[in-house]
Design brief:
The protein is 22% helix and 28% strand. It is of the alpha+beta class and 235 residues long.
Amino acid sequence: MESKEENEMRVAALCKSLGDLWSKEDVVEVSDEIPQQKREECSRTLFGKLYSKPNVNYLAFITTMKKAWKIEGVICSQNEPGHFTFVFPTEEEKQRIMRNSPWSYSTNLLILKQCLLEVPEHCYDFTKAAFWVCIGGVPPGWRINKVFNDLGKRMGNVIEVQLDSTTNAQNRGGRVRIEIDLTLPLKSGAIMDIGNNWLWVEFKYERLPHYCFSYGKIGHYATDCLEIPYATLPG
């Protein structure tokens, strides 16, 4: 959220651009106290946006998401095509949905953002989303929190690290929850420098929606890529 100084500068610039279209009489002061009921409602509210192809059948979308979430009591409204407001019956249900994200509708990524008390709907950034990423190929001796955290930073902002237990039959190492910038190509791996020995480790994204293997971005398939036309790729 912007600082007080940035907010004052933004408002001053807006007032200057309006010229004679406003006066100090148009300023409406509001109480600093937000009612507890509104606080609770905002806490249970998420804003959602379909990352690509926003024009979907609204009723079909809501029916599908309620079944996927296993919540009949969620109240949903469509602000504009592809933009939604979800009000959950309880804080626990909302937290469960956020923990289990990302969610998709017809392979179209649904980005969810927590409603904030003082931020209008149109001010949210829907260019980032959190994914669980499995990291494979890390040697047993280096399967520690710091190494997975450092590897995760190559993909984006690290939210959480989960290491596999030694009793795990698969024992692949672990996974990291990352907030990823969707405007950038996804990274497929990284190189670990271990005493001048370079070792490739692989990133595997869980529940990945529309993805272009040619360009490396979420939002479309390789056959629909405009940056690297599918027809020009070697057969």
